[in-house]
Amino acid sequence: MGxxxxxxxxxxxxxxxxxxxxxxxxxxxxxxxxxxxAMGSVGACRQCAVKQFKDENDTRGKLVMACMTPATPNARIxxxxxxxxxxxxxxxxxxxxxxxxxxxxxxxxxxxHLQDMTVMTGHDYxxxxxxxxxxxxxxxxxxxxxxxNRCIQCYRCVRFYRNYAGGHDLxxxxxxxxxxxxxxxxxVLESExxxxxxxxxxxxxxxxxxxxxxxxxxxxxxxxxxICGHCSLGCNITMGERYGVLRRVVNRFNSEVNGxxxxxxxxxxxxxxxxxxxxxxxxxDGKRISGDEAEQQLQTMISGGKRLIGxxxxxxxxxxxxxxxxxxxxxxxxxxxALGEWExxxxxxxxxxxxxxxIASLHDVEESDTVxxxxxxxxxxxxxxxLSLRQATRQQSFExxxxxxxxxxxxxxxxxxxxxxxxPLFLAAxxxxxxxxxxxxxxxxxxxxxxxxxxxxAHEIHSSAPEVPGLSNEILEAARTxxxxxxxxxxxxxxxxxxxxxxxxxxAAANVARALCDSGLRASLSLVAPECNGVGLALMGARPPQxxxxxxxxxxxxxxxxxxxxxxxxxxVDDLFGSAERTIVLDHLANETTARANLLLPATTIAxxxxxxxxxxxxAQRFFQIFPPQPELRESWRWLRDHAWTSLxxxxxxxxxxxxxxxxxxxxxxQESFRIAGAKVPREPHRYSGxxxxxxxxxxxxxxxxxxxxxxLSYTMxxxxxxxxxxxxxxxxxxxxxxxQAVNKFQSEIGDALRxxxxxxxxxxxxxxxxxxxxxxxxxxxxxxxxxxxxxxxxFGSEELSSHAPGIAELAPDxxxxxxxxxxxxxxxxxxxxxxxxxxxxAYRLPLQIAPELxxxxxxxxxxxxxxxGAELPAWTAIRRAQ
Amino acid sequence: xxTAEERQEIKAELxxxxxxxxxxxxxxxxxxxxxxxxxxxxxxDIGELLGMSVADLDGVATFYNLIHRKxxxxxxxxVCNSVSCWIxxxxxIRQHLTSRLGIDFGETTPDGRFTLLPIVCxxxxxxxxxxxxxxxxxxxxxxxxxxxxxxxxx
Amino acid sequence: xxxxxxxxxIPADRQALDLRAYESVxxxxxxxxxxxxMTPQAMQQVxxxxxxxxxxxxxxxxxxxxxxxxxxxxxxHPKYVVANxxxxxxxxxxxRLLMEGxxxxxxxxLALAGFAIEADVAFIFIRGEYTLAQERLTRxxxxxxxxxxxxxxxxKSGYSLEMRLHVSxxxxxxxxxxxLLNALEGKRANPRAKPPFPQVSGxxxxxxxxxxxxxxSNIPHIVAKGAEWFKGLSHSPDAGTKLxxxxxKVKRPGIWELPMSTTIRELxxxxxxxxxxxxxxxxxxxxxxxxxxxxxxxxDTPMDFTSVQNAGSRLGTGTMIVLDDQTCPVGMTxxxxxxxxxxxxxxxxxxxxxLGWAKQILAAMEEGHGKxxxxxxxxxxxxxxxxxxxxxxxxxxxxxPLQSALKFFREDFERHIREQRCPWRA
Lengths: 883, 154, 426
Ligand SMILES: Cc1cc2nc3c(=O)[nH]c(=O)nc-3n(C[C@H](O)[C@H](O)[C@H](O)COP(=O)(O)O)c2cc1C
Ligand code: SF4
Ligand code: FES
Description:
The structure holds 3 protein chains of 3 kinds. By secondary structure, chain A is an alpha/beta fold. In chain A, strands 14-13-25-24-23-15-16 form a 7-stranded mixed beta sheet, with helices on one face. In chain A, strands 17-22-21-18-19-20 form a 6-stranded parallel beta sheet. By secondary structure, chain C is of the alpha/beta class. In chain C, the strands form 2 sheets. In chain C, strands 3-2-1-4 form a 4-stranded parallel beta sheet, with helices on both faces. A 4-stranded mixed beta sheet of chain C has the order 6-5-8-7, with helices on one face. In chain C, strand 2 (121-126), helix 7 (131-146) and strand 3 form a beta-alpha-beta unit. In chain C, helix 2 packs across helix 9, helix 5 (95-101) crosses helix 7 and helix 13 (329-343) packs antiparallel against helix 14 (349-366). The radius of gyration of chain C is 22 Å and the shape is globular. The mean pLDDT of chain C is 97. Chains in contact: A-B, A-C, B-C. Chains B and C meet through helix 2 and helix 5 of B and strand 3, strand 5, strand 8 and helix 13 of C. The complex binds flavin mononucleotide (FMN), iron/sulfur cluster and FE2/S2 (inorganic) cluster. Flavin mononucleotide (FMN) binds next to helix 4, strand 4 and helix 16 of chain C.
């Protein structure tokens, strides 16, 4: 920090930063376009000009771009200087020469950074009389809508897409005032982070194509803080609704988790909420009944003296799982996930808690200078992490730049110095991943061999880690190389996860992390899971799934938000429902399990619920209703609640009392009683329109705003328009800052935590106890006539709920079975021939795909995407040509 | 498909640069030397050779004016339209050429013989007005000289 | 007869000197001298002492530029030197002569620059249209390699240098030194921010020196004959000779090597032979398209960096474009502005947007559609493109002819608007 002088006033500023960053951090309004807090400065737009003076005697000064000028101590600048003011207005004029001024019909209108900056500079009068240049707009896929005429050539889109996210199919073409930003021709954007263009673009060139289908202005959206439910990372999001339709998802900044960006599964998976498959009514044996009747039926069924069996869900909230567990009793509560997955989940939580390595947040991952990934394809199972990993591999280039005294925010200069130089990322995976291009070394092997590699690395790092017997020279060499690099790192991170359902993988990762700690390094560990609350479920404790089938016999089975047919063999699930006395199912989307319900209770989705999810780093985060559920719908915890509970706070309290390790969840967000100046935090923005007319077609009487007994958020536009605690932040909006870039106004320093601290609480931390795991698997040996069938993760399609969003479904791959060419040759099969496999007594047919990356003896099918999805994987199976 | 010769020429360039990308402009020009222009297909093939995407390459190609992304005639006539030639009678030269060839800038004669393009200062201002036909420079132009030149290029 | 070190051996028919011919007139003597006993530091010092300033347009002292390169055992490698042979500044045709007529002189100069900064690789970045110069440089490079002036362990000195001819894809921006670096890397030739300067982080992030062809062509002579000799070539403290040129409606357009600080009048009247019959002098751009107009009152200005600056313009490339009274100054300004607008790389807003607009306004004026207030907009724009306002020097260069035309030919602009036509058009 140092003192700088802005318009004569002494202010404290971070001297590692540039003047734009400093001014914004101080809460001053200085317009900008090309700069982005996560992407640094390139000095293209020239919007952030200020006057800089050499010293106190210099009265003339000269214009500089604030974003390209370091905030050196004693710097003297003026934002208000008339020349600077005029210049900034002229920049806007320049941009507006060709801009179509189509705000009324532009999706960005009302939350447009260009509008905001235009107003900020005071430019208002159009002095050009010439025709404007026009462009062809491209079809870019189901997520991003393209309208090039609005472009102001700030280059943010290509900088994000190419430099930050590693994409290659978007670029700038042509020159002068006709630079075109798009693809070489129409087509679906390949990057799984393309959706961020919608927020990165400061105007309406790239907008949300899904929003377009049910368009609503930002000011007409009811918004609330939520958590992404489409993987275990717990990215913070804001959802917006109007007329009972969920309209869109935008990023909600959290410096520890997702920062400024989401993946496209997280941004566009929301549309399942509006799906035609939604269960809107309670059903008793296939007949529609009212909500009240359903309550009564439920009471009768659960108090009939029959044994109750509860089947929980890794995609339901902690509260709903807890309510079910309380209702049926701990001894009757099952996790509802397949055995391998459950064991992997509990092993992961155990490993995180007993390994001394720090549990990595996404922010930690991003700051790691050396990465080891063991067997988890995070790019598909926890996609946002892949974006963090891309940044992590830049750590080395930051050092190189620092040596040349190039400030790290000088983005192009740093990249130029770096060239292809990357911090090491070692990637051991069974199949291809979307991170292969940045891996320093790639190891393709079966999960057990990857685990062996991991155990070997651990031993090479620290001799107290168990030695791996029978290692091949090749693996030993690899292990040594990696160990040496990891040991020379400052902040290494080890990453694995549960997608392969392999305990050895997880334990190998933990051993590497422990060995690094034992060598005195500040290492961290991350273990991801495919579903949003698997970790929460694992923390609650549940009986293992294999006992579920017997226990269900003659019992009343309650299934919570869980399609068992996705997780267990069809025959087993059929038997379970067949042998049960009766079945109660709570869910929000119709599926095969809901079809088996005697009593079907319509549950709310995340968008209509309050609750808590626990991310893979053990961070409990609260999500809030965006809009009140339709009258017949209730949150699952509400259907199942103990009748002593009347609100979410009661559930939370009971949960905290009962399960010590869950106690901190209470602190994940303020209680319902929280008030600012006596008022709740409004979900509706100050300009929310049509409040009195929205339902005028039904009744001219303005309805009373719904009450919200569960949170400190209100369903109105009245209330305290000051910054609430971050967990309650319904949207980022600030006077003069209507776009999402208003987040600047809510951070302690630009890019750092939200004021008052980022939301969420860790339910557990690493500890120094524990010891090395030593269950080292035997080497993988291909079999003569069988293949090891493993699940392959797909960002689009593998996750259940998001695959009900039309855009996601469109991009999901067709079912397949993949093996390498040698395997196919052995079977005398070519690509796309039909093969047949047999799992748990059922035969499945799939088209063959050749995947050169797969090791010999291993075949893969897409997780969640094939008819064989209920089969427990990995499994050995014979593969033959389908007859 | 790139021809063996094109491939070899591109590979020869690769030896002199630390990155493959550095060769991409040369690669497009090599293809252009052989085929007159750089088609979408050629871009794809070059991309494969250099590990670049079509968008990577096209972003570069569209920056530079000596890379033709559309077919051209057998001969490319590039007329200097910069200041010294403008002073010395560029307008007359342009009008003469367009009416003689019956095409405007950016167009190709129906017989595929000539493509007409404007070009910036050719660095021969002492011989203005000037133009190039293919790789050859011609200065001190007047309509008669142009007529004679056009005859020479079949 | 004043000395003409750069051009005296170039025959009238501009046939290139081959290696033998070049060596017979003292070629590669400087190179042998440097490699035979000078240290790179000493070489840098000679060039510093010589007072040589860059001939690419900006006039930066060459020796000083070199001295910013990290040297010694810890310096990053490979280091690069680049000859900027892009010469696309309208009205400029000097480097072409040097390359076509005496390619070895450039090669020697570039190799010496390489030696001075301990470079490993040298590039000659040449524009695509200079096909003849490419041919001759290619041949000369082969000869130089053959004779052991390039490659490994040159002249057994332990110094090695590879040199490549690199042909541009074509854009004015490729001549801007950082745009050139991007072009050489196979990227779009947008400029790069400075700092970091190319001497510290240039090609592929490594130390790089970029010099103009004429600048480099001087080096062999400075090394061979010394700094004092070089200073003595000039009429002023700006050392050396200069290639001066004139184009436009003068009797003998051409290019001449003369002592630095030769006056405009001498150039115009003696060397260019005065104006053609029937036309009268109105003004000129002294050093290429991106310099301010000078007029009658400036004719006695010596053409050197300082004097031309004092007169309100820039020496630039030293090649003058002459405006006569039969040529429309608005049309000329329009042509210049259209050039800059067309060549704007599209990176920074004042340039890509402002130039596009200014071009539209000027074209409309020429077409007879000028409007009240247009001149204010134009002068506003030209100020908008001041140095520091834009990312690189292209737009500030575009501002120079425009702002000075508005100053010296204001009445002509006003007439266009008033009469709703171009008075020079039939
Ligand atoms: C738009 C633009 C185009 C330029 N074109 C050239 C050029 O063609 N040749 C050249 O030598 N310098 C050119 N320059 C100047 C270079 O940026 C650089 O200053 C010069 O090559 C340095 O060489 P010197 O120090 O020997 O003069 C250009 C500058 C700008 C802003
Ligand atoms: S002034 Fe700006 S837009 Fe113009 S060429 Fe330079 S960087 Fe590009
Ligand atoms: S934000 Fe500073 S130049 Fe664009």
